[in-house]
Amino acid sequence: MAECIYHQLKSQPTWILILLSLGSISLLKLSFSIIIWVYVNFIRPGKNLKKYGSWALITGPTDGIGKAFAFQLARKGLNLVLVGRNPDKLKEVSESIKSKSGSTQIKNVVVDFSGDLDDGVSRIKEAIEGLDVGLLINNVGVSYPYARFFHEVDEKLLSDLIKVNIEGTTKVTQAVLPAMVKRKKGAIVNIGSGAAIVIPSDPLYSVYAATKAYVDQFSRCLYVEYKNSGIDVQCQVPLYVATKMASIKRSSFFVPSTDGYARAALRWIGYEPRCTPYWPHSILWALANSLPESAIDAWRLKFCLAIRKRGQLKDSKKIE
């Protein structure tokens, strides 16, 4: 049988043999990629996060993904430094965590990332002095209240986007990193966005997408800088998650709840420098990569224009 196939192939023109070879290589690469995808999403175990240190610092922990991270990390046995701007919400989250994970130690640090950031970072440094902070979750971020053209972005929103998303992430990382370098261990997780990485453009959210592109490149550079120092740096790239920021109330197969996302996210910490932890999102990412950029641009513009129209209607009702 094998000899028969061999003789048949040998009798074929060279160009057919080349096409068959290329097809076989492509099929092999696809099969290998699928095997890896299945392994990392469903089989590969998460790392023991306590090996990085006994404390985790989370920014933006009072709502959404940050809050879910706080609960999940407490369940893993880590103590928490929660950094947010609302002292009442910080207290509420802390008490809720302690009611479920009584042994968890928690420190609250009040920082308004859109305010005096230098003073806030000083308070963070003071709070973590002497603590074995092995994990940093840079989650704090702001977006547009609704889609709008760049010329419609007011000075306050423009300042907040840059200050919170870029400067806040950068300065908190700089505050926490030296102790990790000294101990030669640690993990930094920066929350990016599919708006900057998965899709080629995010019209009417241009500054938000650009700030998240900064987070992605910042993370990759730090990953290379510190990977030989025992420090794992990662940019996580969620697509839509059911949060207030995304204005989505209900979760679905492609839109996880915050808890669903956080559970998936913990399993990826310490591995790839860039990832989308919730596996249905990776399907959407693959689909986006397979489509022409012009088609995605046109769809996204139409979608964002609809969001802008709804936002303008809500604003007009508030004025009335």
From TrEMBL:
One GO molecular-function entry: ketoreductase activity
- InterPro entries tied to this protein: NAD(P)-bd_dom_sf (IPR036291), SDR_fam (IPR002347), VLCFA-Steroid_DH (IPR051019)
Q: Which residues cross the membrane?
A: 15-40
Q: Does the keyword Transmembrane helix apply?
A: yes
Q: Which UniProt keywords apply?
A: Membrane, Oxidoreductase, Transmembrane, Transmembrane helix
What is the protein named? Answer: Very-long-chain 3-oxoacyl-CoA reductase
- Might you report a single GO cellular component term? endoplasmic reticulum
What PANTHER family does UniProt report for this protein, alphabetically?
RH59310P
Determine the domain of life of the protein's source.
Answer: Eukaryota
Q: Does the keyword Calcium apply?
A: no
Membership in a protein family: Belongs to the short-chain dehydrogenases/reductases (SDR) family.
